[in-house]
Amino acid sequence: MKILTTLGSLLLALAVLAAMPGTAMAQQAETDPDAKCLKCHSKKLKKKLEDGETMFLQISGEDFGQSVHQVIGCTGCHRDVAKGKHPSREPIASRRDYSLKHNETCSQCHAAKSTAYEGSVHASMVAEGNGDAPVCSDCHSSHSIQQRSVYEPVSGEPCSGCHEPIYEAYAASVHGQAREHGNVIREAHVQAPICADCHRAHDVSAVAATNYLRDTCLDCHDGAAVAHEEWLPNAGMHLSSVACAACHSPMAERRVDLQLYDKLTQVPVGQAAGDDTFATRVGEVDRTGDGLDPVELWKLVRTTSRDGNGADVTLRGRMEVTTGIEAHRLAPRAEAVRSCESCHQGGADAFQNVTVSISAPDGRKQRFAADKKVLNSVVSVDSVGDFYAPGGTRIRMLDGLLVLALVGGMAVPVGHIALGKYLRKKSRKD
Amino acid sequence: MITAAINHSHDRRQHEKVYLHPLPVRLWHWLNALGFVLLIVTGFQIRYVDLLGLMSFESAVTLHNWVGFAVIANWFLWFVYYLFSEQVTNYHPDLDPKAFFQRYFRQAGYYSWGYFQGEERPHKVQPKDKFNPMQKLTYQFVMFISAPVTFLTGLMMWDVQRFAGLIDMVGGIRVVNTVHVLMFILFVMFIFVHAYMGFLGAKPSSHFKEMFTGYEEEHD
């Protein structure tokens, strides 16, 4: 749809001209190149595309007149249009193809933003051929490009167009509500975040793979780290291995994601987008496809390591919420999960869902289901060496040993006393 | 006349009493006993919140940490005292393992037979050699291996980020926890057996009295 308006800037000038008295319009058309464009593009022009679709070329002169790009005029972007040269007869494969070409046009002025975008999850999806992944004009529009302040109100978020359920969760959250009610939380004026404040506007990344999002939370909640240290044992470790939303979105379903890490470089094991090597490896060890059991996971770690014995890779666990929607249902502080027992006990809900993941360079994770037993198996001492929640992921075999120790510990006095009685009885008989 | 003879005999026995456990050792022992019991109870609570409800997980962790540090400090009291005491010989390793284990099994045989027959104890207790071979091996293991390993692994779990390098070196936090729990299991067993053996003195109360007064109780 945005493509329909891509060439429409030309029509703006025409629309302006159409509203003018004949002589004045003729004079302006002589001096204002945009007016020349709008002379045609204010009309209901359309073009047949090679994919069979029709692209409308009508541009709203009023919208373009209010756009921040009005100052550079139509040819600021449509540089292939010049005196005596108009690409109208050149074929256009599709609207998407046209948008992608003009994405490059944006980079000519907005180089830094474009570079940031190139590293984003959105750009990765475009490169993979995802037709729904956004390019510049999908978020900024083609001819009604507005100043940043237009996006500031919650309702101005372009993200909601694609991420509507997540947006609705956000809008109902403590952040969204604060934003909607004048940025006030508990009678204090705050600057509650909108989407781009946490996810960044152009280098949008999949936030779950790293501590980026945690750091973003702490950027605003700068007293939070200290506040957690006051009551939470190993607060730094918790803030690193438990997603903020796992406690601050109290109704969310949680899971443990075991992410492959390179022990030497201390970074997640990466795999290029579209590379199925790891997925193939998972398929080879989990032939039944019922999720990785402890032994299969152990094999997977060993086969993934460079040396083949698992010494240079490990699985680091991270408690997170199961969906992006739930991650955005952040509640007021008083409603956050405060009870340690919600995780630190056998059979806790948080340990019923387990995934194993590997990261793509843009931060997206490829996830594979694992049996929840991987958190409690003695085999996991090796493979899941870097994740342990006391009480919650205790090794069952050690429970058995403890019972043996208790029984054995009690058996020594009982047995010794019984032996004494037997021997005394025997000696009396003798 | 008879009374005088009894008193004389009693006085003589009083004079023969051997001072086995100096005050620092007794202080360390009972503080350690209290610490061990608290650590075992809070350890159970931390590990089995779903089965035990003595206190909250949070309180159990806090108490476990504080008592843990106290027991570590207490270990150093024991270590420094013995290091500069003549009684350090009690922990010296035996240089003749064959002879040591012969005495070890003789002691085990005594507990399973001779003790009930009223036989003389195979090990004569003296201040510089107060542990029988079974005690000696057990206490060497507990004080030089189990306790330090438990302290170290406990410290690592107390502040995972501070000891991240060390944790990584030994194979990860799950390895650390597993070792800590294995030591915990050994201590649970040790406490049962140790407490029971305390009753196997000259009288059931003898060893307990010794650990309060420091003096060896008379054997019949």
The averaged pLDDT of chain B comes out at 90
Strand fraction of chain A equals 5-15%
Percentage of β-strand residues of chain B: under 5%
Ranges of chain A where pLDDT stays below 50 over 5 or more residues in a row are: 1-26
Q: Largest contact between protein chains?
A: A-B, 42 and 43 residues
Question: What report would you give on this structure?
Answer:
The complex is a heterodimer of chains A (430) and B (220). Chain A is of the alpha+beta class and 430 residues long. Helix content of chain A is 43%, strand content 10%. Chain A is built from 21 helices and nine strands. In chain A, strands 5, 6, 7, 8 and 9 form a five-stranded mixed β-sheet that branches. In chain A, strands 1-2 form a two-stranded antiparallel ribbon. Chain A has a two-stranded antiparallel ribbon with strand order 3-4. The longest helix of chain A is centred in the C-terminal third of the chain and has 34 residues, at 396-429. Chain B has 220 residues and is mostly helical. Chain B folds into two domains: 36-84; 93-220. Chain B is built from eight helices and no strands. Chain B has helices at residues 2-16, 23-47, 57-83, 97-117, 133-158, 164-170, 173-197, 206-213. In chain B, α2 (23-47) packs across α7 (173-197) and α5 packs antiparallel against α7. Chain B is globular, with a radius of gyration of 21 Å. The chains are: A alpha+beta (430), B mainly alpha (220). Chains A and B meet through α15, α20 and α21 of A and α3, α4 and α7 of B.
